[in-house]
């Protein structure tokens, strides 16, 4: 459903986008950036949730997010995740070229992929579905992504549609992980993951607002590191 809403929204966005002025398309992108920033801040503030503080101590949550971002960023940089993702977008541009500039296609692909796949709903919704708790969160995310993809595609074109493949792979993988793990992920670990994802979304917002080209994709390993750091601190405390 999420892939379908992204594709439909992208088609509508491309059709509408040709009728909008460059200034209007820039304004649409800025509006998405501001809303992304709002969502990011709301998610990042969950670092103060009681479940995480009780598990690791009141002073540790922020340090966990910081450590996850630093360690994850180093790992992602060494793996060149951002460069590989952009390279994949460039390959798709050459393969399915419809007359758009490569930079525009890649920026749309990367930005949309990050917005659709970094948010807490991506991981929490997919894990919940895999754990058999229902797909309500994923349905909500699908609707939000559908509307977002309209605005994105109006500014960036077909690169946004290509991000549907990333949505399929990432959310499909996370759902499979949830099905394999069962109900074993404690609330504190989920909270740390969500807070870290929120901080990463701030980087996406900065990209959309053209304030700073943060290599957000290189930070993706932080989403794995954060729960591991929580578990490490819990083990030390016990």
Automatic annotation (TrEMBL):
InterPro entries referenced in this protein's UniProt entry, alphabetically: DUF554
Transmembrane regions listed in the UniProt entry: 31-48, 60-81, 108-127, 147-170, 190-209, 216-236
The keyword Lipid metabolism is assigned to this record: no
Keyword terms of this UniProt record: Membrane, Transmembrane, Transmembrane helix
Domain of life the protein comes from: Bacteria
Protein name per the record: DUF554 domain-containing protein
């Amino acid at each position: 459903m999420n892939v379908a809403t992204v594709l439909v929204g992208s088609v509508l966005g491309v059709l509408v986008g040709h009728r909008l002025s460059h200034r209007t398309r820039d304004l649409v992108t800025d509006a998405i950036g501001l809303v992304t920033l709002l969502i990011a801040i709301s998610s990042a503030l969950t670092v103060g949730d009681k479940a995480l503080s009780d598990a690791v101590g009141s002073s540790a949550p922020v340090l966990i997010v910081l450590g996850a971002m630093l360690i994850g960023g180093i790992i992602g940089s060494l793996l060149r995740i951002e460069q590989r993702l952009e390279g994949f977008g460039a390959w798709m541009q050459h393969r399915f070229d419809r007359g758009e500039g490569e930079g525009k296609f890649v920026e749309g692909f990367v930005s949309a992929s990050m917005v659709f796949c970094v948010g807490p709903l991506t991981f929490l919704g997919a894990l919940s579905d895999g754990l058999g708790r229902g797909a309500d969160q994923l349905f909500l995310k699908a609707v939000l992504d559908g509307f977002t993809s309209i605005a994105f595609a109006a500014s960036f074109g077909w690169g946004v549609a290509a991000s549907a493949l990333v949505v399929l792979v990432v959310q499909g993988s996370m759902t499979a992980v949830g099905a394999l793990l069962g109900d074993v992920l404690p609330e504190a670990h989920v909270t740390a993951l969500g807070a870290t994802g929120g901080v990463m979304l701030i980087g996406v917002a900065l990209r959309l607002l053209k304030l700073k080209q943060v290599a957000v994709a290189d930070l993706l390993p932080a989403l794995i590191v954060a729960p591991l750091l929580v578990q490490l601190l819990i083990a030390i405390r016990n």
